[in-house]
Design brief:
Length: about 290
């Protein structure tokens, strides 16, 4: 649910304020909240515990910086840009490709093998999301917006894989460090594109920003890294295909919106794909990967 509310929030912010400036405010304020806990110490000592809250070792610190650049920087730069002219339905379908891309990239990094079960699960999930939004995919969308959203999905997948590939550390200091390069990249893009840096005036924008800074950033990504420490990268990425299910489900529960037959059928396909993925046997890890 946090994932979907985050997407809806930055969809609103992208439509009502400067793209990169608003994203920068989000990560700067979120980084302040995440770092309000005892500050992480950076150590290259092999005796420092990977799971210790207080330590980000040398390679783990580098990993947090790269993860932040991808996950909080380039992902949101492309996503904000794409969502200005692309409908949320198209974004949902494209983001549903993340598990397949994550599987391929995890194989490239030596983390997971590519299996027919994994490919089948990803395809089924994408088809399910496509069925849910089939009646909303007729609008003409600029090619640049489509490419921007696809690049955002690639960044999501690669960021997930790298977070798994680098040494395991506590999620809170990881996010506190990761949001710094993400915010730095976005503010640089904001000035580069000549955006106006104004204070939002609409109440709805402030509500969305408040959610983005708190639960939508700190809560969401700390939870994401906790799951990632326990599951494979490809299995964790299936959270993305649950986005539309949460959206429609919340609409039906809170606003009494109609649930259509295509949604029910598409939901069945999505859940079947997720089930196939998360119940797959744990992949064997290569000796080289395990040593890292």
């Amino acid at each position: 649910m946090l994932w979907q509310l985050l997407r809806l929030s930055f969809f609103l912010v992208a439509r009502t304020s400067s793209r990169y400036a608003s994203a920068t405010k989000n990560w700067l304020r979120s980084g302040e909240l995440a770092s309000a806990s005892p500050p992480p110490r950076f150590s290259s000592s092999p005796s420092a515990s990977c799971g210790d809250f207080n330590y980000l070792e040398g390679r783990a610190f580098l990993g947090a910086l790269i993860f932040g650049t991808l996950n909080f920087g380039t992902t949101y730069a492309f996503a904000y840009w794409g969502l200005v002219n692309a409908p949320a339905a198209l974004a949902s379908v494209l983001v549903a490709l993340a598990p397949l891309l994550t599987l391929v990239l995890a194989r490239a990094h030596g983390l997971e093998p590519i299996s027919w079960r994994g490919i089948g699960a990803g395809v089924i999930a994408v088809l399910g999301v496509g069925v849910i939004f089939a009646d909303q995919l007729t609008a003409a969308v600029p090619l640049a917006s489509v490419l921007a959203l696809l690049l955002a999905v690639v960044c999501i997948a690669e960021g997930t894989v790298l977070a798994k590939w680098f040494p395991r550390v506590h999620p809170i200091p990881t996010n506190a460090v990761a949001m710094v390069p993400g915010a730095a990249l976005l503010i640089a893009l904001s000035f580069l594109f000549g955006e106006q840096h104004t204070v939002p005036v609409r109440e709805s924008t402030w509500i969305a920003l408040t959610y983005l800074v708190t639960a939508g950033s700190v809560g969401l990504f700390v939870s994401f890294l906790i799951v990632l420490q326990r599951w494979t990268a490809s299995a964790t990425s299936y959270a993305t295909v649950l986005f539309p299910l949460v959206t429609v489900g919340m609409g039906a529960l809170l606003a009494g919106e109609f649930v259509s037959l295509p949604f029910v059928f598409g939901t069945g396909l999505v859940m079947a794909g997720v089930y196939l993925a998360v119940t797959a046997p744990a992949p064997a890890v290569s000796t080289a990967s395990a040593a890292q």
